[in-house]
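ok posting inputs for the phenylalanine job
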Amino acid sequence: MSRDDGSIHLSDYRPPAWRIPRVEIEFDLDADATEVTTRLRLEPDPAQPPAPLELDGEDLELLAIRVDGVELPPESYVLGERGLRIPDLDGACTLETRVRIRPSANTRLEGLYASRGALFTQCEAEGFRRIAFMLDRPDVMPVWDIVLRADRARYPVLLANGNPVGGGELPDGRHLARWHNPHATPPYLFAVVAGDFGCVQSEIVAADGRNVRLAVWAAHADVPRCRYALGAVERALRWDERRFGRVYDLDVFNVVAAQDFTMGAMENKGLNIFNARYVLADEETATDADYLGIESVIGHEYFHNWSGNRVTLRDWFQLSLKEGLTVFRDQEFTADLHSRAVKRIEDVRLLRARQFAEDAGSLAHPVRPPSYREINNFYTLTIYEKGAEIVRMLYTLLGEATFRAGMDLYFARNDGRAATVEDFLAAHAEASGRDLSQFARWYAQAGTPEIRIRDDYDAATGTYTLEIAQRTPPTPGQPDKHPLHMPLRFALYDEAGRRLRTAPRGAGGADQVELVATRHRLRFHGLSARPLPAFNQGFAAPVKLDFPYSPAQLGRLARCERDPFNRWDALQRLATGVLLERFEAHVEAQDGLSAALGALLDDPAQDPAFVAECLVLPDFDTLAESVQAIDVDSLLAARETLLDQLAFEHAERLRARYHALADAAAGGLDGAAMGARRLRNLCLALLTRLDREAALAQAQFEGARSMTDRLGALRCLVEADAQGRHAAMEAFAARHAGDDLVTDKWIALVAMRPDAGAQAEVRALLGSSHWTPTNPNRVRAVLGSFARANPTAFHAADGSGYALLAEQLPGLDAINPQVAARLLGAFESWRRLAGPRRERVRETLDGLQGRFASSDCRDLLARLLG
Ligand code: PHE
Ligand code: ZN
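and the output
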């Protein structure tokens, strides 16, 4: 499979020579030494050339090996670092292996590991091979019988994939549980959980009449905080029935919260395992953003049951086939349940700040990479978010009904199979009768396309012309790019802000054209004046748009454009132009922005959540994506100056709005109350800039009745470096002592403190009892917040912020390579840093050479420096 340099290539794909239709796997669970007995039903695939059996296996202590019940002599197999090779198997047989593994020593959190007295598995992408010898690849899809044996007192709850099919008592205080997973399921979706948990549960009748028991499990003390997650499961199940016609296919659906978990959550068949932060919530501990995050991740993992599990992946190159599609599905879930406009704005904000940076940096890769060294390094914003954007474009190009027909065909045709991106596109091509071959380039070509549009109005003939050109910049390994197939929506407005109905020639009367060539020209006739054009409504194509809008035009667009996303985007564009001093009439532009925001604040008809989105200026990462060379100091300074100015100019309105929203903000978890709290906390943040005493923030902190308001106020106090901030931090810490998830929140606030002092505080945290490097959430709270969300301190001009992060990485790598590799990714844009910073990063990265043990960090470091 892998080449001499350790790389794996899409073009080398071969189907497995052996098939494994059934697996029986038995666990004698124990935190220090678990024994796993696995019986694989092996059958040579007659369609493939015969080959020796090569099973994956890592860190397994082999205790016994039998073929059809007969002990295999040592000379008949070869045991290596990466697995087990049996050269002379005759034909179909049952291979039994018994191995010992050590969960309590497993800090990588891949395979079977111990966490807070319980046992969990994590198998995606290649963790199953740390549990048993197996063809550990997604195109091997057995039906599973799972037996769990464990001490009853310590592990009263024993869960696995599929349906429970019995259990009972064993001698010596042990007990047993049997599970059967009837659906063809690859090993990366295997899961086992054992521990002392409680749950909340409900019964639901699925659309096909099946009774399904839904349960959310957590440590007993946390069970009251599982209610919201359970409701989210019910909403997800119903939504997938309604919107995609997908029905749940087992008798139980279990979700378990784990405090130690590397990623967000995992869609194991019938047994989703979650990072506790995406399950546990109540008023005392969760912010509105936490609630929404929980609902969307619960949805995401639930939706994988079809997009990922029933239809799985042929190989890991197809990762976005499940992730991009499932992100698209969870985005739509949230949009249907809440505000579509706000959801789109937030998704695009993330895309621009983080995915565009990835696509423009040293780690850029296509949505379907042609090769990899370490698959763990490809769980990226490009695979997830850009992958979702590609699915969204397909949805836009085909329309709701045709897209749904394509999805139905995709699911029907590939059910129980390991599919490819080609299978996905073929289903949509067939359902729509369209040629999607050029569209497929989106999966192969890295980099964010730039759409440059120039217009011309000829008063004599009443003709308006748009010249449209597309270009994708070079990325590592891809110097030359081809034009992409994408939808381009547009609208024209007249002086009075009325939408012009004039259709361009060749667009079939539609307000959407399809770009396929490098250049296009659109011509509109019969216009009595130059119109105001608007493009890419809803951000239907994930591109950078270059059109020379004047500040006045952007101000008009922000008022008259029908599409709310574009209204928001006009203000972001205006703000970006002001921040980067791109307008000739700088003062006029700034005034225009200020006036527009003031008008929004004054307008009671506007959705507060939308107004809040408009008040949030482009962040550092987004600004960095809008410039060639990243001048950290001037970007940060420009933002601070503009925010101070806006606060000063609108102090009255902000105060009025803050108080007027008090009642609405006191409500529960409905959209109106959440929107009110969001806007109110933004008003507070601006007002606190004007007031060294931060009296309003102090008062909100003391009287807060929700975590959203308490944390919102605390953030203001910390950012303003207000007098009362220490006392408030201590009060907050004391109130939530012992709650790890809430402790992560205040730690993140400390690490994000926007001044040089943050470094000393982060160092103090690293030396305190709060520093638990084996817990990924805590590592992210301390170092992730610092490196990814505190540009002021991380990019300290002397390189001390880079050094702080780098010092920690080799140690973290030895504990959990995936966590370390993600932090190392914070350097992805280093080549574009202006001034001495670039050199400082280079020195820092050079100093890390040879210091990593894992393939994760080695691969990433090589790509960063490559
Ligand atoms: N597949 C998980 C998801 O939904 C993410 C994940 C990847 C979790 C790898 C664990 C390990 O998105
Ligand atoms: Zn996913």
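notes: The chain has five domains: 1-195, 198-310, 323-444, 450-550, 740-866. The pocket of zinc ion (ligand 2) is lined by residues 300, 304, 323, 326 (CB under 6 Å).
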